[in-house]
């Protein structure tokens, strides 16, 4: 009798397990991910009770292993305080390449209670001024290798009374205060009088959307920075890992997720000055690297690089990052060995983010019940012409259906703060959607199209709006069209991105209308671009039109242009291609088109 009862219970359980496997195959993974997040939330709360609140606290918490950085950052803090007028609450812009002192200066300024703004090191002089002004910086710290960039705009900076610090022993002129000569004489003792920080306040500024003139300084709150620190841990890294970071520190990925992730674990970080496909695996072998951080482009460069013996002799077990397409991923693991890939999705401005923690190729994350519990979000139906959310007659938005791409939006909550862009109320408001499902509610609009499939997986579809991605950077279309507008022969320009087989992101393309009685001067355009924009923002293609298409609301029409791309067979408009070797735009013939599409010509 007992055995019978027992076996029927067992059979029932077995049936349940089978049923769960079939109907909810990801139940346990979803639950585990949720628990991990919850556990971290609890740990955070416990830490807060003990007074370990800020980013700096999290770092100092690991001080035993990180003592040198701690001492050196204290030395920097003292140098800033002694030599100049840097004080609590000041915004300090940081223009430095990847190097350990980037982190020491950053943390040193944290110790003084400053807000640091990371500047993109590729920017040109005019954009540098714009960036420094837009975040309201009182001082600028420059790495020794970048001093020339600053010298170009020295008169303007001096006029603004900007304090200029140079991370070097000597300076090219008296306008800079050198740091390295002073740091050596400063004490590395803990600073006793560290200012109190409200963790709901702003911590950092990170520039997004076009690193060029019109970039926006996004505020990153303490809370968001601290939550970002869990990235590597959520991906499965531990304190024993040696983590290789090659991405630029001025972006959120390398700084908040990468360095922050190492600090959180207390792991070893191998920081590379600049990504190099030829040195990647050699470095991994040399430093016993076990975890690497990537963006999609990086993996593609590695796959395109000729074979090196180290690519299979390394100990890398985990690659964590974002933007990896499934074709490259397959090639990546086939070629470089058994590396677990953890693909995520995140934004600088808001806290909405996903992580792929299942073995499914393709999706960026899950949209299960548990995920929505820990981080609410919605996908909204949009108008394919304007990319604006569709509203009903009563003015409310509509949820996209399962299997239909929608705009990702997330409600603003205490955990999902959006602190906006510095000094740019208009742009900040533009990222918000109001009265979405009921009067008065507010959502952050990511501008990204995602698809929720019938198995609760989320797939990334596209980035819409005023930016597109190319070579791992955001290109701001308004910025590029402004630059075009400065030329005497161009009346109007509409900038957008087009896809090319075999490339991540989108290559820039400009539909332009020439001024009456003017012709295209490709050389002049090329020279102008070289002076004003970083290379990744230069449009590869031109399309000459007699007038620009606009929508009913007089917004530039991009949808159709994007679809038609740069194929000379689909349009009568003359097309041009940027030939960098000739420093000119050349007519795009059918033959040239095929050479580009087939990969014979590389962009
Ligand atoms: C890498 O690991 C090997 C074997 O465990 C060890 O001998 C070597 O010193 C390590 N190298 C570094 C740079 O840590
Ligand atoms: C690109 O833009 C998005 C949205 O504004 C931002 O969250 C992200 O950090 C940017 N990425 C880079 C590399 O600038
Ligand atoms: C998600 O992670 C799994 C397991 O590591 C991997 O097999 C899959 O390719 C990943 N998906 C993406 C899009 O990276
Ligand atoms: C194009 O502009 C350059 C100056 O940048 C000028 O030297 C050249 O003559 C122009 N070419 C034509 C065809 O107008």
UniProtKB/TrEMBL annotation:
GO terms, molecular function: long-chain fatty acid transmembrane transporter activity; long-chain fatty acid-CoA ligase activity; nucleotide binding
Location in the cell: Cell membrane
Oxidoreductase in keyword set: no
EC number: 6.2.1.3
Chief localisation class: membrane
UniProt record, GO biological process: long-chain fatty acid import into cell
Keyword tags: Cell membrane, Fatty acid metabolism, Ligase, Lipid metabolism, Lipid transport, Membrane, Nucleotide-binding, Transmembrane, Transmembrane helix, Transport
GO cellular component: endoplasmic reticulum membrane; plasma membrane
Membrane topology label: Multi-pass membrane protein
Coiled-coil intervals: none
Record-stated family: Belongs to the ATP-dependent AMP-binding enzyme family.
Protein's UniProt name: long-chain-fatty-acid--CoA ligase
Organism: Sander lucioperca (Pike-perch)
Lineage of origin: Eukaryota, Metazoa, Chordata, Craniata, Vertebrata
């Amino acid at each position: 009798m007992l055995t019978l009862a027992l076996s029927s219970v067992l059979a029932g359980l077995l049936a349940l397990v089978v049923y769960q496997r079939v109907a909810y195959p990801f139940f346990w993974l979803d639950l585990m991910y949720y628990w991990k997040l919850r556990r971290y939330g609890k740990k955070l709360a416990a830490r807060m009770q003990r007074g370990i609140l800020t980013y700096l606290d999290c770092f100092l918490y690991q001080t035993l292993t990180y003592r040198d950085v701690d001492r050196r950052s204290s030395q920097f803090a003292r140098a800033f305080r002694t030599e100049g007028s840097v004080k609590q609450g000041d915004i300090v812009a940081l223009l430095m390449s990847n190097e350990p002192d980037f982190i020491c200066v950053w943390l040193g300024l944290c110790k003084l209670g400053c807000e640091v703004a990371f500047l993109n090191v590729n920017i040109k002089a005019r954009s540098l001024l714009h960036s420094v002004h837009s975040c309201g910086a009182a001082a600028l710290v420059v790495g020794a290798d970048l001093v020339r960039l600053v010298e170009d705009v020295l008169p303007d900076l001096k006029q603004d009374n900007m304090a200029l610090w140079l991370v070097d022993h000597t300076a090219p002129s008296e306008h800079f205060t050198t740091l390295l000569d002073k740091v050596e004489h400063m004490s590395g003792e803990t600073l006793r009088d560290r200012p109190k920080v409200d963790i709901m306040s702003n911590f950092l500024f990170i520039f997004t959307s076009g690193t060029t003139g019109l970039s926006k300084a996004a505020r990153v709150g303490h809370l968001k920075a601290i939550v970002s620190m869990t990235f590597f841990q959520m991906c499965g890294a531990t304190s024993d890992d040696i983590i290789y970071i090659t991405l630029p520190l001025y972006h959120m990925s390398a700084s908040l997720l990468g360095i922050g992730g190492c600090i959180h674990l207390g792991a070893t970080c191998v920081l590379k000055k600049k990504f190099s496909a030829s040195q990647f695996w050699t470095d991994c072998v040399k430093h016993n690297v076990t975890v690497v951080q990537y963006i999609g482009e990086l993996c593609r460069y590695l796959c395109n690089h000729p074979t090196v013996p180290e690519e299979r002799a390394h100990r890398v077990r985990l690659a964590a990052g974002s933007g990896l397409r499934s074709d490259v991923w397959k090639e990546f693991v086939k070629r470089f060995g058994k590396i677990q890939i953890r693909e995520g999705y995140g934004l600088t401005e808001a806290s909405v983010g996903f992580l792929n923690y299942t073995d499914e190729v393709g999706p960026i994350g899950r949209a299960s019940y548990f995920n929505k519990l820990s981080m609410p979000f919605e996908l909204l139906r949009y108008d394919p012409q304007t990319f604006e959310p569709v509203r009903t007659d009563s003015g409310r938005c509509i949820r996209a259906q399962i299997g239909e791409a929608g705009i990702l939006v997330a409600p603003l909550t205490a955990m999902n703060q959006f602190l906006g862009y510095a000094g740019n109320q208009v742009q900040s408001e533009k990222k918000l959607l109001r009265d979405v499902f009921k009067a008065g509610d507010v959502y952050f609009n990511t501008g990204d199209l995602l698809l929720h499939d019938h198995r609760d997986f989320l797939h990334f579809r596209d980035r819409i709006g005023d930016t597109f991605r190319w070579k791992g950077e955001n290109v701001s279309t308004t910025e590029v069209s402004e630059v075009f507008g400065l030329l005497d022969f161009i009346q109007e320009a509409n900038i957008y991105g087009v896809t090319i087989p075999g490339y991540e992101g989108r290559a820039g393309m400009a539909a332009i209308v020439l001024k009456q009685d003017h012709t295209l001067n490709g050389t002049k355009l090329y020279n102008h671009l070289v002076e004003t924009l970083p290379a990744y923002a230069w449009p590869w293609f031109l399309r000459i039109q007699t007038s620009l298409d606009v929508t009913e609301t007089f917004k530039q029409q991009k949808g159709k242009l994007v679809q038609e791309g740069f194929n000379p067979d689909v349009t009568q408009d003359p097309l041009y291609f940027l030939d960098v070797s000739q420093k000119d735009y050349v007519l795009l013939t059918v033959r040239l088109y095929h050479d580009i599409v087939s990969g014979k010509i590389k962009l």
